[in-house]
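This protein record is not my work; I was only asked to verify it. Would you go through it and say whether the fold makes sense for this chain? Here is the record exactly as it was handed to me.
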Amino acid sequence: MKVIHLLVASITALSLAAPAFAVAPQGGFGNPQRGAPRDETPPSWSQGNWSGHNDFTRADIELTIGEDGRLTMVVRKLSDSRTMRGSFRGGKLDFGSERYLIRQSGRDIRLTRENNRDDTVLLRRQEGRPTSTGEDLTITEPRNNDRIPSGVVFIRGESRFPDVQIELRRGRDVIQSASLRSHGREYEFRFNLTPGKYEATVRAKDRDRMTVERKLVFNVGGMGKTYIERPAAGEKLRSGPVEISGTSEAPEVEVEIYRGRDRVFIEQSRVRDGRFVCRTKLDWGTYVVTVRSKEDGKVLGTDKRGFEVVGNDGLSGRDLRLDKPSDRGRYRGSSLDFDGTAGGLQVRVQVFRGRDRIENQLVDVRDGRFHVRVRLSPGHYDATIMSEDHGRVITTKRMSFDVE
């Protein structure tokens, strides 16, 4: 009996010395040794697969909430994607550094980031199939942040769902939208776009009419491609209104015209549908036009042309003017200079003494002017001055003079 009493006393002493343990009820707090919270059972309405698009972070969200409180969130942005794992604790989605409040919104759920009320997203349940993945809807062309030539732009990709829609934005403005049914898995949209920065949003609806969405940012133009179509290099233009036109992939161009060292024209012009046009009036002369493509004041590309401006055909002599000699003038010396302006490409000077032609010179017109020197002995002379264009006589002047 004494042995039994001693054994009971020892057991009682050990029980009193041992620490007390508190057992948390299911759904309470775990790790009883440290008092840290453990995974809770989430509400039945929140369990399952969810997906949606977060406009604040511009990311596609895919969320799985398990019956055991385990969480998996996939965040897909244009540049990358990441997967976060966490637990349902304290009525919140706990991913460690990020925590989200969750509430029911009809058949959907809404998540709001704990430390940023603006970061909120509405998620729709994905019934009867896995959460939407990046393979369901893709944009293969162009790539994010690509810079492509202006003009016809193709936006291509693949969709697991037949109905595909697209919306193009430039800044805050929706400039174009379209829809189609994809052929097989592939879809293609075609737009004629001017230079600028664009955001494309492609959407497709699955069998449950839930929307899957992908976004893309790309730039059109600004690649420095500049081309002057008119005037062509070395082209001869008639004096008066002159048109400078061509193509550019930048939003604007600067058109600058020089005659020799003198700048005679400069203008900033907007590019519309990839084209630019400037007009000015130019007199006779040799010119150089330079077109610079610009974006935000930065020169992206340059093209340059040299051309000539000559007189107007058929103006009855007004495109040929003789400064000297004068008609019926009298001159001394052994040579005589013929100077003037002409609208043709060349000037021919013929000098006659009686019936004999003693001089026949053909000279080029440069900067609208010509000069011919003729050696003459004393006597009476007749002269014919002709403005020519590729061998065709445009204008003729006749005169007579005496050399003493």
About this structure: The CA atoms of residues 350 and 360 lie 4 Å apart.
